[in-house]
Write a structure and sequence with these properties.
Distance between the termini: 48 Å
Shape: globular
Helix content: 55-70%
Number of helices: 9
Largest sheet: none
CATH class: Mainly Alpha
Strand content: under 5%
CATH topology: Peroxidase, domain 1
Number of domains: 1
Number of strands: 0
CATH superfamily: CRISPR-associated protein Cse2
Structural class: mainly alpha
Length: about 180
């Protein structure tokens, strides 16, 4: 289990994967592409673990995260979706990845699940783990335009930002 994970819901999902609970993971995958509450097979695994007093949008984020996790139950301790997709860029086809990422960033909340399913499927194909705790947090913010803008900026910085292994060189004003 990923020891860095603090969120009890993500810890629970990770325990399903660690214990190879294939039936539970299959039930959670049935929620892919479905609105929250439209896949009753998910209820026994989600409902008892939802925090109290969630808004409908926050609750939908839990369902979406669970279904995406069941699709690709590899966990990362750090990073966000932009950073994970940036790792995938390293393997080539950067233009296609960049187009898909730009569409994901611009996604309306109603369309986000489809874009995320494509992104997570792609990360799975490249064997790149996902920071599920961060994704759950980010998805809960997506419904509010001001918070969504913050998430979009963080994902964009992680995707297009300067790689960590390239230290900044001070500008001397002279051409190099």
């Amino acid at each position: 289990m990923n020891q860095a994970t603090q969120n009890p819901f993500i810890q629970y999902l990770q325990s399903l994967a660690d214990n190879q609970e294939r039936g539970a993971l299959a039930a959670l995958r049935r929620g892919l592409g479905q609105p929250a509450w439209s896949a009753p097979e998910m209820y026994p695994y989600i409902v008892p673990r939802l925090p109290a007093n969630l808004t409908a949008a926050q609750e939908a984020a839990y369902y979406l995260t669970a279904s995406l996790f069941a699709l690709h139950p590899k966990s990362a301790a750090q990073g966000n979706l932009g950073g994970h997709l940036a790792q995938a860029k390293q393997g080539g086809n950067e233009d296609a990845i960049e187009r898909r990422f730009t569409a994901l960033l611009a996604a309306h909340p109603d369309d986000l699940p489809g874009y995320l399913r494509q992104a997570v499927s792609f990360l799975k194909s490249k064997e790149i783990p996902v920071n599920w705790e961060q994704l759950l947090y980010d998805l809960q913010a997506w419904e509010r335009p001001d918070w969504r803008a913050r998430v979009q900026k963080e994902w964009a910085r992680a995707f297009w930002g300067r790689p960590a292994e390239q230290p900044e060189t001070p500008s001397t004003g002279a051409p190099a």
